[in-house]
């Protein structure tokens, strides 16, 4: 009796499933949903169009416009931004995870091949000049230089190693770990650490001021530096990997290496440490103020100029809700730097190769 009842109940349930509306079926779109969908489809079409145009120009060896990557970058931002607006209006459009580790609410995994093509085009447009002076050990150079600089600044070995790991993260954040690259979105910033001419000169002056300490701490590294300095003489130092990394670190980051012990206590996650030093690149003044405040994570920025700089570097840049922000704490800023996560994870893996325990 019980078994027959169970069979009958199961058949009844199956019949309901066959005749009921599909789970999650969307009724007629609201005006907001229709507008969000149309905006995303336009942005996606524009992204495909500019990708195809740049590919055609490169393959045909046609002259590229000034800053050829800017239109590509803005088109990619528009796609991610309009998709976030779409999923805000239609949460059912949030799909599966993607290989770029972008939150699924911001990115449709089906368009991964388009972003792969985006990366390939930037690799071509940002290829180093013919006279660039590569290093056979680019990743080790970054770590060795940062560790030596940190030791010259008085850090204990453990914290000097943290400086090396953090600096390797900066290399990946700036150029995806590629040495001596140009910049398809700027005529100013170049090289492995993407510095401008004045920043490079400032870094060289600061390096010269501590060179005596470097000689005493690491004679072998100092000798390598002498060779690279001689090799780069008469050229743009930003296209010698060693000198650009050295000068970039000295210009923006070396003075803050002294803060690493406190930073590590406040931010025990090495990726958060990398994010903080990347913010020294992006918004140096408020980041230094936040470090001095004694309450780093709750320090709040509200300057429209600072918020603009953050957005220009893919932080609070995607979707109307994020772009409407008029202020943010450093806790919120670090959380919003999800587009850097994959780069910093690669840096961590490379660091483990260079400095195996």
Write out key terms for the chains shown.
357 residues, mainly alpha, two-stranded antiparallel ribbon, 16 helices, 2 strands, 1% strand
Commentary on this structure:
The structure is a single chain. The chain has 357 residues and is mostly helical. The protein folds into 2 domains: 94 residues, no CATH class; 229 residues, no CATH class. The protein is built from 16 helices and 2 strands. The radius of gyration is 25 Å and the shape is globular. It starts with a helix and ends with a helix.
Number of separate structural domains: 2
**What is the percent of helical residues?**
55-70%
What is the rounded Rg?
25 Å
Main sheet: strands, sense, barrel: 2 strands, antiparallel
H/E element order:
HHHHHHHHHHHHEHHEHH
Strand content: under 5%
- Unreliable spans are 1-25
Structural class: mainly alpha
Physical arrangement of strands within the biggest beta sheet: 1-2
N/C terminus separation: 67 Å
Overall shape: globular
Number of β-strand runs: 2
The helix count comes to 16
Q: How confident is the prediction overall: mean pLDDT?
A: 92
Lay out the secondary structure:
Blueprint lengths: L1 H18 L11 H29 L8 H22 L22 H14 L12 H15 L4 H19 L21 H21 L1 H14 L8 H12 L7 H7 L3 H13 L1 H9 L7 E2 L2 H9 L7 H4 L4 E2 H6 L5 H14 L3
Antiparallel strand pairs: 1-2
Helix pairs in contact: 2-3, 2-4, 3-4, 5-6, 5-7, 5-9, 6-11, 6-16, 7-8, 7-9, 11-12, 11-16
Structure summary:
With 357 residues, the protein is mostly helical. Helix content is 63%, strand content 1%.
